[in-house]
Specification:
binds SN-glycerol-3-phosphate, TIM Barrel, about 50% helix, about 15% strand
């Protein structure tokens, strides 16, 4: 089975999102054509915002990337989440509103989807939670792989379970593998058929690296130099 030819009929490669609110990192990856979108969360925003208006930061991110940008609500009640979600969605057409996987979050998800706003349901730690998010119309479900690994469970098994359940019932919600900590996580997410993966900048650039690539390039350069010619 190769990319683009799996039995589920998915024809696209897994989308790669950058998990950061750091504009310099976003511009670098976007200009290199390495990413399809951005995910943020309140912790990532807190790292960069300082005295700036978070809405201004979201706008700058949306202008820097041609793809979905997840912006998370911070209210805990559905009414507050919907209000914040609508404000966030009004910033730019790229915004996807992120809500937590709680009863209130799923109420907000259903309401925002009713208004045609895309929703990413985050903090998912079980396949049954993922099924309820899909029932609420989630555009994306974000299982947190690394955080399950941290407590001695298998985060990738969760991604696999969600894939089987969604495929079994023809659910269209996209699986956005999150909390990925290293390249192996990214490979496993691809092999399972996750629709998207979000990675911190460090992991994105780790994907590019291989010691044999560096060694091979060094050898090519040395051999070319010994020739003493220009191209
Ligand atoms: O997208 C979710 C992600 O930001 C969580 O990652 O490394 O904080 O578990 P981490």
């Amino acid at each position: 089975m190769g990319l683009g030819s799996n039995p589920n009929g998915r024809v696209e490669q897994m989308k790669i999102f950058l998990d950061t609110a750091d504009l310099a990192e976003i511009r670098r990856a976007s200009e290199a054509g390495l990413i399809d979108g951005i995910t943020t969360n309140p912790s990532l925003m807190a790292q960069v915002a300082g005295k700036e208006d978070p809405r201004g930061i979201f706008l700058a991110i949306c202008e820097a990337v041609n793809g979905p940008v997840s912006a998370e609500v911070v209210a805990l009640d559905a009414k507050g989440m919907v209000k914040e979600g609508k404000k966030l969605a009004a910033i730019h057409e790229n915004i996807v509103v992120k809500v937590p996987l709680t009863e209130e979050g799923l109420r907000a998800c259903r309401s925002l989807r009713g208004d045609g706003i895309r929703v990413n349901v985050t903090l998912c730690f079980s396949a049954v939670q993922a099924m309820l998010a899909a029932k609420a119309g989630a555009t994306y479900i974000s299982p947190f792989v690394g955080r399950l690994d941290d407590v001695g469970q298998s985060g990738m098994e969760l991604v696999e379970e969600i894939r089987s359940v969604y495929d079994e019932y023809g659910v269209e919600t996209e699986i956005l593998a999150a909390s990925l900590r290293h390249p192996r996580h990214v490979l496993e997410a691809m092999l399972i058929g996750a629709d998207c993966a979000t990675l911190p900048p460090k992991v994105l650039y780790q994907l590019l690296k291989h010691p044999l690539t560096d060694k091979g390039l060094e050898q090519f350069m040395a051999d070319w130099k010994s020739l003493g010619k220009e191209l």
